[in-house]
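Listing S7. Sequence submitted for prediction.
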Amino acid sequence: MSLFRTELRRLAKRRFARWMTAGGLLVLVLVAVGMFLSNQKIGPDQFAEARQAADRQHQEQVRWAEQERANCERAKTAGEDVDYYPADCADITAPPRESIEEQWFLPSTFNFRESFGEMLIPLAAILAMVGFVVGASFVGAEWNTGGMMNLLLWRPKRLTVLLTKLGALLTGLLALALPATAAWFGSMWLVANWRGTTEGMTSGTWQSFLITGLRGIVLALVAATLGFALASLGRHTAMALGGAIAVMVVGQVGLGILLSMAQVRFAEAWLLPTYVYAWMTKSLTLEDWQACNATYTGECNPATLDITWQHSSVLFTVGIVLFLGAALWAMRRRDIT
C-alpha cells in the first residue's frame, strides 16, 4: 500500500481536520452573506434619494447658521462675552450646496474592481489559519498517541515518513484551497452583479486578482508547513499552537509596544503581519512622521520605507528552512520513544 495514499486517507478521516475545515468554510460563507446584505445596487432611485438627503443636510446647515447668527447678534447686543463668536456675526454662514456631495449619502455598494483585491486577504488569512492548525494537529496527534512509532515499525525510514506526511498535508490543503478560492471568486462576482457593479474589469485586472489569489494559497501552504514543523519539533500539537500564541501575543504585541516606546523608526518593519500584508498586496509603504523630507515648496513629507513581496518571500523561505530543517534534523537524531 502506498504510504502517500495512506497519509492522505488518514488526513481526510481526522475529525479535527474536518471540523476545522468546516469552520473555516462557514466563516467564508458568513462573510459572503454579510457582503450581500450590507451592499446595494445603485441606480436612479438611490441617486435621487442621495440628492434629497444632501438637500436636507444643506437646509439644516442653513437653519443652523441663521440661528447661530441670530444668537450672536443677540449676545453682542446684550453685552455678553462672545469670544466664541466671530467679530462680525454676518460671517456665520452655511456652506454652499456644492460642498455637500451627494455621494456621501449613497448606500454601500460592492465595486468588484476596487474592492475584490482586499477581499482576498481574509480568504488567505482563513486558509492559512486552517492550514496551520490542521498541519500542527496532523503530526502532533501522531506523536501524542504513539502512532508515529507504530508507523515507523512498518516504514522505518524516518525522513521519508515525515516528508510524506508533509506532502499529504500540503496536497490535502491544496485540494481545499483551490476550489475554495474559485468559489470565493464566484461568490464575490455574484455579489457585485446583484449588489454592486462589475464595470471596468480588464484582462490585466483579472490577472492581478488571480496572482493575488495564488499568493493567498501559497501563504496557506507556508502556514501549514510551519505548523507541521513546530508540532514535529515539540512532538505535540500544543508546541505549534503555543508557539503561534507566543509569537503573536508576546512577540508581536509586546514587541510593537516596546518599539513604539523606544520610538524606533519604521517599527512595523519588525512585525510579522506587515510582511504578510505586503505579500498579499505586493508592496506596503511605511511612513515615519518623525522625520521630515523638505520639498522645494516647503512641504514636509514623511520618510518612507517600502516592504515588497520579495522581502516577504525571503522571510517565509528562511522560516521554512529553519523550522522544517530543525524538524527533519530532530527526526533523524532523536530517539523515537
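Caption to Listing S7: primary sequence and predicted C-alpha cells for the chain studied. Residues 158-195 form the longest helix (38 residues). The chain has a mean pLDDT of 83.
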